[in-house]
Specification:
The chain is mainly alpha-helical and 502 residues long. The protein contains 16 helices and two strands. It has helices at 24-60, 64-92, 94-113, 118-146, 150-181, 186-189, 191-205, 220-243, 248-270, 284-314, 319-347, 349-367, 376-403, 411-443, 449-473, 491-497; strands spanning 15-16, 206-207. A two-stranded antiparallel ribbon has the order 1-2. Helix 5 (150-181) packs antiparallel against helix 13. The longest helix has 37 residues, at 24-60.
C-alpha cells in the first residue's frame, strides 16, 4: 500500500480528474490525447513557418539571415530552455508548468501574427520557443511516466510520434493554404485558438498536484548559460558567410560561446541540483539515443528549409504549391512512424536506426542533384519520399532508446533532454548548413539561380553525411534485455497508479 496519506496529498502532476475519468484505461487515454495535442501544436508551429518564409521576407523585408532566424530563434529558446522547464515540471507540478507554457506560446503567436517589422517577429519567435520549452517535455513525460507497461508505452509513444509527424504534414499544407488565401500572419495566428482550447481542456480534465519534495530549487544559472552559449554559436556560424570567419563579430560570438558552455559544464559539475541529474546518463542507450536524436533534428529540418526556398525562390512556385509539393514526404513520415511500432519489438531499435539512416542518406544524395529547372516527380517527389521513409523508422527507436530504463521520477528531465537534443541539433545543424550553402554560393564561378542551387546541393550532401553518421552511431546501441516478470500488484494500488504520469 502506498505510504502517502490520502488526506494530505493531492493527485500527481497532470493526472486526469477522477470526477471526469473513472476507469484506468480511460485515464491513460486522456493523458495520451493531451500529450499528443500539445506535441502537435508545438511541431505545427515549426513546419508551418517554413512555407511562409518567402512571404514573410516580402512583407517585412527580411534578409536571408533573418529568414534563418525565424526558424532558429524558435529552436534555440525551445532547445535551450527545455531542461529548465523539465526540471520545473518535476518540482512544481507538470500541469502548472504546462499551462504557463500554453499561455506564453499562445500570446507569442498572437504577437508574431501582428508583427509590424522583422524585430517584432523575431522577438515573438524567441518567446514562442520559450513557451514550447514548457510544452514539449511535459507532453512526452506524460506518456513515459504514466504508461509503465512496455506495450502501452510503445503504443502511446507511437501516437505521440504520429502526432508530431502529422503536424509536419498539416503544417506544410496549412502554411501554404493560409499564406496563399489569407496572409503569412495566419501561420502564427492559427495557434491562438488551438492553444486556448487546449488550455481549457487542461482545467476541465486534469487536476493540479502538490510540488515535489525531492528537490527545492532549480539550476537557473545552468539553463541561462547553455541557452546563451548555443545562441552565440548559431549567431557566429550564421554571420560568418557575410562577415568572414576572421571578423571581430564572428570571433567574439565564438569565444563567448566557448566561455558560456564551459561555464555551464562547471556549474553542472559543482551544483547540488544540476539540470541533468547524473543518474539520467546511467543508461548506455539513453546517452546514444540522445546523440542520435540530435543528428535526426538536423536531417529532418534541413530538407524542409532548403526545399521551401528552392520551390518558391528558384522555381517560382506559390506558397500553396510548395506546401503541396512537400506534403507527400510528411505523409510518408507519419505512416512510417505508425508502422515502426510493430517493427521495434521484432527488428530492434539498432537495426531500424541503421536501415533508416542509410535509406535517408541515399534519398538526400538523390535530392542533392536538384537542377535549376527541375522535373518535380524525379527531382523532388521521389527523393523526398525516400528521405521520409528513412526518417520515419528512425524517430521512434531513438526516442524509445533515450527514454527507457531511467528513474520515473526523472521522467520530465529525460523527456526534456531528448527534445533539447532534437531542437538544438536542428538549430545548430541548420545554421551550419545555411553557412555552407551561402559560402558555396558566394564562392561559385556562376551567378544567379545556378549559384544558389549549387549551394543548396552542397548543404544537402552534408545532411546526407550526417544521416550516414547516424546509421553508424546506431551500431553502438545495445539490444534490450528481457526483463523478469514483475510481481503482481495489489488491485487497489494498480488501479490508483493507472493514470499516474509522474
Amino acid at each position: 500500500m502506498s505510504s502517502r496519506d490520502p488526506s494530505t496529498s493531492s493527485p500527481d502532476p497532470l493526472t486526469p480528474s477522477t470526477q471526469n475519468v473513472a476507469k484506468p484505461g480511460v485515464r491513460l487515454a486522456v493523458v495520451a490525447v493531451i500529450a499528443c495535442l500539445a506535441q502537435f501544436m508545438v511541431v505545427l508551429d515549426s513546419s508551418i513557418v517554413n512555407v511562409a518564409l518567402p512571404a514573410m521576407k516580402a512583407g517585412l523585408g527580411l534578409s536571408v539571415g533573418a529568414q534563418q532566424w525565424v526558424v532558429d530563434g524558435y529552436l534555440i529558446t525551445f532547445g535551450g530552455l527545455l531542461l529548465l522547464a523539465s526540471r520545473a515540471s518535476d518540482l512544481f507540478g507538470r500541469r502548472r508548468v504546462f499551462q504557463i507554457g500554453l499561455v506564453v506560446f499562445t500570446a507569442a503567436s498572437l504577437l508574431g501574427g501582428l508583427a509590424q517589422d522583422g524585430v517584432m517577429l523575431l522577438v515573438a519567435r524567441f518567446v514562442q520557443g520559450a513557451g514550447a520549452a514548457a510544452l514539449g517535455p511535459a507532453s512526452l513525460s506524460l506518456i513515459t511516466a504514466s504508461h509503465t507497461e512496455p506495450g502501452r508505452r510503445t503504443r502511446a509513444l507511437t501516437w505521440w510520434g504520429v502526432a508530431a509527424a502529422g503536424a509536419g504534414a498539416a503544417g506544410i499544407v496549412l502554411g501554404g493554404v493560409l499564406t496563399a488565401s489569407l496572409s503569412w500572419r495566419w501561420v502564427l495566428l492559427v495557434n491562438v485558438p488551438i492553444g486556448a482550447g487546449l488550455l481549457v481542456a487542461t482545467f476541465v480534465a486534469l487536476q493540479a498536484s502538490t510540488a515535489s519534495e525531492r528537490r527545492t530549487r532549480i539550476d537557473v544559472p545552468g539553463a541561462v548559460t547553455v541557452t546563451l552559449g548555443v545562441a552565440a554559436i548559431v549567431y557566429g556560424v550564421s554571420a560568418a558567410p557575410q562577415d568572414g570567419w576572421a571578423s571581430g563579430q564572428v570571433l567574439a560570438a565564438i569565444v563567448a560561446a566557448i566561455v558560456l558552455l564551459a561555464a555551464f559544464l562547471l556549474i553542472e559539475s559543482r551544483t547540488r541540483e544540476p539540470l541533468i541529474p547524473r543518474e539520467v546518463f546511467a543508461e548506455h542507450n539513453v546517452r546514444i539515443g540522445n546523440v542520435l536524436t540530435g543528428c535526426l533534428g538536423l536531417v529532418i529540418t534541413a530538407p524542409l528549409f532548403f526545399l521551401s526556398l528552392y520551390l518558391q525562390q528558384v522555381l517560382g512556385e506559390t506558397a500553396l504549391r510548395a506546401g503541396l509539393s512537400l506534403l507527400p514526404m510528411a505523409v510518408v513520415i507519419s505512416v512510417g512512424v505508425l508502422a515502426s511500432q510493430k517493427l521495434i519489438p521484432g527488428v530492434g531499435p539498432k537495426r531500424l536506426v541503421l536501415g533508416g539512416g542509410l535509406i535517408a542518406a541515399g534519398g538526400l544524395v538523390w535530392l542533392a542533384q536538384l537542377p535549376v529547372h527541375s522535373a518535380y516527380a524525379v527531382h523532388v517527389l521521389a527523393p523526398t519520399l525516400i528521405v521520409g521513409a528513412g526518417m520515419s523508422v528512425t524517430m521512434m527507436p531513438a526516442i524509445v532508446a533515450a527514454t527507457t530504463g531511467g528513474d520515473p521520477r526523472n521522467a520530465g528531465v529525460a523527456s526534456g533532454l531528448i527534445n533539447m537534443c532534437r531542437q538544438i541539433g536542428g538549430a545548430l545543424g541548420l545554421a551550419a548548413l545555411v553557412t555552407v550553402a551561402s559560402t558555396v554560393t558566394h564562392q561559385g564561378h556562376t551567378t544567379g539561380p545556378e549559384s544558389v542551387v549549387h549551394g543548396y546541393r552542397t548543404a544537402l550532401l552534408v545532411a546526407a553525411a550526417v544521416s550516414l553518421a547516424t546509421a553508424v552511431l546506431s551500431l553502438l546501441l545495445k539490444e534490450p534485455r528481457a526483463s523478469a516478470p514483475a510481481a503482481p500488484a495489489r488491485r487497489d494500488e494498480a488501479t490508483a497508479d493507472a493514470g499516474r504520469p509522474g
